Amino acid sequence: MKKILVACGTAIATSTVVAKKLQELLEKRGMKVKIDQCKATEVASKAASYDLIVATTEVADTKGKPLVRTVAFLTGIGIDAEVQKIAKLLGG
Predict the structure, then answer these.
(1) pLDDT tens, 52-66?
(2) What SS3 class is residue 92?
(3) Residues annotated as catalytic (active site), given as ranges
């Protein structure tokens, strides 16, 4: 199971929307993932435990973990391309 950390400014509404949509779309592709949420300022202290970081805002340090910065899950524009990129980064 791959672990994804979703970060936004406050770790409340935005990251929740992204996490739920991403979970649903990756599971439709047959991928098992665990998704957690955090504030963008917390990424550096949490990144080591995750396979991939998805953020809707700037993050300072991902500790070498791959980062996908996107608003596609909020706007609905380009979601398929982003899911494909994320799946590829996770090896799926």
Answers:
(1) 999 999 998 999 999
(2) coil
(3) 8
